[in-house]
Amino acid sequence: MRVADSQEYLQALLDAIRPGTDEVLAFYDHRVGVIGTDAKLMLMPWDDHLVHRGDGVFESLKFEGRKLYQLDAHIRRMKISCQAIHLEPPCSWGELAEAIVEVARAGNEPNGLVRVLLGRGPGGFGLDPYESPVQSMYVVAYRMHKRPEAAFEKGVSAMRTSIPAKQSWMATVKTTNYLPNVLMKREAVNNRVDFPFCYDDNGFLAEGATENVALVDDAGRLVIPEFTNALAGTTLMRAVDLVKGDMPIIFKGVTEDEVYTAREVMMVGTSFDAIGVVRYNNKPIFDARPGPVTKKIRALLQADLLKSGLVFYANERNHAPGSFHSRNGRAGRFCFQGGSMDTLVCHCFGYTRGDIERDALAHGRSTILEGIVAEKAAGGCQCAVKNPTGR
Ligand SMILES: Cc1ncc(COP(=O)(O)O)c(C=O)c1O
Fold it and tell me: Minimal CA–CA distance to 165: which of 129, 117, 210, 198?
């Protein structure tokens, strides 16, 4: 083998085979500080402890119709994961949120998924986390392959996996140690089953490979396996919020017998919201059709995304963007609107009360307001004309 110089190596790298490039829409490596779209350049340093020790955490969130779903909830969970492994992002949480929005927007597709990875960072091949001077942050937007509508009508299958649920302290944190999850998924695929269910040491149902499970029992209650050996899903917790006035909900240890005798069994997770499990270990669940509660939860989650998803625009020229500066001093741009508090505050730039509150929470001051004030001073704000109340 020859030893190449940098230029030759770079060329060879670009020529190397790289499956999956069609899936990648845009990506951001915090060290680099700019967004890329050529997936061949989406590479991680081998000596990032995230890569060779699994010393990192992650989140996956989706956007549909250029609306990011549950950004706040994912960031909240990521903070918890970070605390559990004594990690901090290399920038503020506000900047991390903005990077997610920016990368999703740069992907230039209305629908997709965003993966955020926070790692201990490059620095060596040891174990000692203090070997890495600066944490790493990688954000990628990639294509989402939605299940066909027929799958939601027909329902899916599930099986008990031979892989035990992770220990509580690992299962409740979204770390990059997903080997058990991978093996569960592999087992299901090899058995031509859609989803694997894992159980904890006490024989209680924990979760799927990357989804939560919920049941509807004979009494019509939504039964959720306690999150003792499972990740608290952002989707399931949002579903709980959305149905809590309509039906009794209980969190409890769930045995395999309860799965067999449930009225409904559903998988709940970011990419598909909720889908009915109609066969478990080759046996039908109730009438082997997706049930009404599953369908209702899916519809509520879909409506919720439309109502509360964080809007990002495809074309920056049509909507004046804000800007952010990462800690390495490089500037990024963002433009967003929406959120649960969707009263428009600035009619020129489309900012809502919720945007400004989130921005203030994330930054300790409102960078949006500062931007609007600066634009106003430069004569760029026409809220007095555009806002019917003349604000
Ligand atoms: C192990 C595990 N359980 C449950 C979930 C569901 O969480 P969410 O609803 O936030 O997608 C995930 C998500 O990826 C997961 O990895």
Answer: 198
